[in-house]
Protein 1
Amino acid sequence: MTALKNDRFLRALLKQPVDVTPVWMMRQAGRYLPEYRASRAHAGDFMSLCMNPEFACEVTMQPLDRYPQLDAAILFSDILTIPDAMGQGLYFETGEGPRFKKVVSTLADIEALPIPDPHKDLGYVMDAVSTIRRELNGRVPLIGFSGSPWTLATYMVEGGSSKDFRKTKAMLYDNPQAMHLLLDKLAQSVTSYLNGQIMAGAQAVQIFDTWGGNLSAAAYQEFSLAYMRKIVSGLIREHEGRKVPVIMFTKGGGLWLESIADAGADALGLDWTCDIGEARRRVGSKVALQGNMDPTVLYAKPEAIRTEVGRILASYGKGSGHVFNLGHGITPEVDPEHAGAFLRAVHELSAQYHE
Amino acid sequence: MTALKNDRFLRALLKQPVDVTPVWMMRQAGRYLPEYRASRAHAGDFMSLCMNPEFACEVTMQPLDRYPQLDAAILFSDILTIPDAMGQGLYFETGEGPRFKKVVSTLADIEALPIPDPHKDLGYVMDAVSTIRRELNGRVPLIGFSGSPWTLATYMVEGGSSKDFRKTKAMLYDNPQAMHLLLDKLAQSVTSYLNGQIMAGAQAVQIFDTWGGNLSAAAYQEFSLAYMRKIVSGLIREHEGRKVPVIMFTKGGGLWLESIADAGADALGLDWTCDIGEARRRVGSKVALQGNMDPTVLYAKPEAIRTEVGRILASYGKGSGHVFNLGHGITPEVDPEHAGAFLRAVHELSAQYHE
C-alpha cells in the first residue's frame, strides 16, 4: 500500500495535531459539479452508476481534481445498497426519490429478509472501494459509509422517502418486536458491509443516521442509537497498521450528543443547528467533531461564506479534533465557485488555531 | 363576559394547581375530521374560509363538540394572514402549499412593506375571535396565534413553502441589514396583531416559530428569538382581570430551551424530540411546558397511544406546569378515534400526578 501523502483528516479524527483543520463535504461528488452531470448523462440510470466501479471511481475523483483543498475522498455509492441486496428491488424514477418494489410490512416479511454477504451480494461496492483506493494512490484517505439501521428501515417500511415516517413509526409503536428484528438484521448487515469496505481499502467509515433525529428522545435511544452502538462494537478498528476511525452522524441529534458520544465512535457528525463550541464542551473530551456549516450558506456570496467559516472555527477554538464539513450534503444548485471559496477559507482561516 | 367553566389550560400555563393535565391538539380543527372536510367542501377556497368569521367559528367548535376532553379552543386561521395583509397576495393551489403573488427580494421591496393595522387590514381575524369567543360562552379558553417573524419571512422571501430556505438564508447571510428590517417590520405587525386578538377575546396566545429550528444556533438567536422576545415585551399580558399567557413554540428548538425560556413567555412548546422531563429540569423553574407526543404515534393503535401518553406524563412528573399536546400538528390521515383515545388517556392517566 502506498503511504498517505495527506493524513490530516485521519489525524484530526483521532485528535492528533494537524497544521490546518481538514475539510471535506458530504455529497462532494454530486450534481452541483458540471463534470458530474456530464458523467451521469453518459452513464445511464443512477443504480447502474453505483454498480459500475469505474464510474464510481471517476466521480469520486472529480471534486478532488477540482479542489486541491479536499482532505478526504468518500466512496460514491447509494445509501440503500443494503436493502437492495436484501431483495427489496431499489429503483429510481426520474426526478423522484428512491423507491422499492417490495415493502416490508409484517413480521413474516422481516423474518424472510436475508443478511447480505458483502462480497457475494455487494461485490460491486467492494470493487468500487478498491478501485478508488488504487486511483487515489495515497493522495487523501478514502471514507466508506453506510446508512444507519433506523434510516434504512424507514425506506424499507415506507417503500421510499417519507415526510413523517408514519408506517415505520406505526410499526415501532404497535409492533416493537418486529421493528427490533428488522433493526437487528440491518445492524448485522451494516457491520459486515462496513468491515468489507474496510478490508477493501476504506480508511475511515461514517454511519449516516439521516432520520434518527425525527424520533422522540426515548425512541432514538432504543431504535436508532442502540443499533449503531452494536455496529461500532463489531467493526474492524485497525487495518494496514493504522486506526480506522468511525464517524457517527445523526442529523438532528444535537440534543443527544452525550449519549451518542458514549456509543463507541471516534467522532460525531454535527448538523448546523448545534453550536460546535458548545458541542465540544459537552463531549469534546470523548470524541472528535465533524461539521457543521449550514449548507445553504453556500448560496451566499464568498465573503459571507468566509465569515461563517471563521465564526465556526472560532467557536471550536484551538487544537485538533475538528474536521470541517457542512452540516448536511451540498445541494445541486450551489455554484462550484462558492464551494471552492468555502474550502479555501477553512484552510486559510484555521492555521491560527493549530500550533 | 361569561365566567370560564374550564380554566385548567390557563392555570397550567401559569403553574397553578390543576386536577388533571389539560390537553389540546395543534391543528385540532382540521382535515382529519370528516365534519371539517364537509364544511370545507361547502365553503370554497381556503382563504375565503379564513376570511369568513362564521365559518372560522363553525370549524373551531367542531373538535370541541366531538371531544369533551379538549381544554382549549384555538382560533381557526392561516399562519400567513399578516404577509397577505402586507399586500403579498396569498393564494392556495389545490394540493399545493401556500403561494404569494409577490416575492420579497430586495431592500426596496422590504422598505415598501406596510405594517398592517389589525382592525382595518385584518378585521376578519378580529371578527373571528370575537365570534368564536361568544360561541364558546365560557366553555374553554380561546387561544389566539401568529407565526413568528422568521417563519413569516421565509414564506415571503421564498414565495411559498421551501425545503431548505435557500433564498431566505442567502438574504440573511448576504444582506443581514435587509433581513433585520424585514423581521423588525414583521415583529411590529405580529405585536399589534396579537394585541388585537387579545382585545377581541383571545385568552392566551401562541407564537408558532415553525422554521426557527432550521437555523444555526447563532442565527436563531439573532434572526428568530430576538424578534419573538421583542413581540412578547409588547404584548398585553392582562385582560378582563386575568393574565393572558404567552406560549412560544420553536419546532426543532430543543437545543436552545434555556435561551427561549429567558425570552419572556409563560410557556414553551416542545416538539417530540426533546424529553419533557429533561426539558423541565433545564427550564421548568421559569416557564410551563406544552407538548410533546410525536403526532405519528396517532397512527398506532389506541393501546400504544395510551402507553406513550403515560410515558410522557411520567417523564414530566408530579405537579402543574404541563399542557399536554402533540409535538406538531395532527395530520389529515389520522383516525379521529385515535385522537379521542389520545385525549382520554391524558385526562385518565394524569390525575395521579396532581393532588
Note: The CA atoms of residues 151 and 165 of chain B lie 10 Å apart.
Protein 2
Amino acid sequence: MLPRTYENQVCSVARALEAIGDRWTMLVIRDAFLGVRRFDDFQRDLGIARNVLTDRLNRLVEEGILEKRAYQERPERFEYRLTEKGADLWPVLVSLMKWGDRHALADAGQPTLIVHRDCGGEVNERFRCERCGADVDAHSSAAMPGPAAPRRWPTAAL
Amino acid sequence: MLPRTYENQVCSVARALEAIGDRWTMLVIRDAFLGVRRFDDFQRDLGIARNVLTDRLNRLVEEGILEKRAYQERPERFEYRLTEKGADLWPVLVSLMKWGDRHALADAGQPTLIVHRDCGGEVNERFRCERCGADVDAHSSAAMPGPAAPRRWPTAAL
C-alpha cells in the first residue's frame, strides 16, 4: 500500500506526486492537454474502467487541476478543462514525453511533436522553439502527430 | 489494479510512466539526485518498507535508470547510482519540483533550490540560470537547502 501522504517529506516533488503521482492521473492530464474534455472521450481513449476514471477526474477537480463545467442542460452534461494550475503541468508532461522519446521509444521515432504555434517550429526539451528561439509555454504551443504517430492519433475521440 | 503497460497507447508519456510512474519510484530517483546511494540510506530517508524498496531499486536497475556497483568486498555491499538515462530525468524532477513549489507549497516557501554550480545562480523552470543566463543541466547544477528547508535537509543520511 502506498500512503496517501509523505508526512515526513517536506519536499515539493513529494507534494506534487500526491496530486498527480498516479499513472492514470497523468494520462488523464495528457489527454486534457490534447483537447479531450468529455467523460466518454477520456474513457474511450484510455480504455480505463468508468469508476476509476470517475475517481481520477473527481480528484483532479478537488485538486484544482481540472474544472468541471456544464455544457448542456437537459440532460445536464459536463466537460473537464484544465485550470491554470493544470496548464502549469505542461513542463512536467513535455519533460516526460521528451524522456520517453529518447529512452523508451528511441527506435520507433516520435509519436507526437510539440510545436510553436506562431512559427510551427519544434519545441525542444528546454521549452524553446528550435526555429525562432522563442520561449514556449502551454498556451503558445500545440501537439501535432509526429513521424511515428499511430493511425488513431491522438485519440479517436477528437 | 493498474495495468503494467498501456498496450494501445503509442505515447512517450505512457512509456515513460511505465518506467517511473510510481510515486515511490520518483522519490527514490529524487533521493538519487540528492546523492543518496545506499540501501539503508534510501530506506531511512523514505521510511519505506524494505521489500518495497528492494522491488523499486531492482526495477530501476532493470530499466537502466540506476546501476548497482559493489563498493565493498567482504561482506559484499552495493550502492546505486544514476546512469545517463537516469540523469536525463533531471528535467522531469525539476519540473515537478517547480510545480510543487508554486502550487502545493506556495505559502511555505521553497524547501530546495536548484543552483548553477558555476555561478551559484538559481535555476528557473526553463532550466536556465537566473544570474548568468546559462543553460543548466543535471551535471552543472546542485540542490541546496531553500528558505523553507526542514532541519534534516535533504536527508539525515547525507
Note: DSSP finds six helices and four strands in chain B.
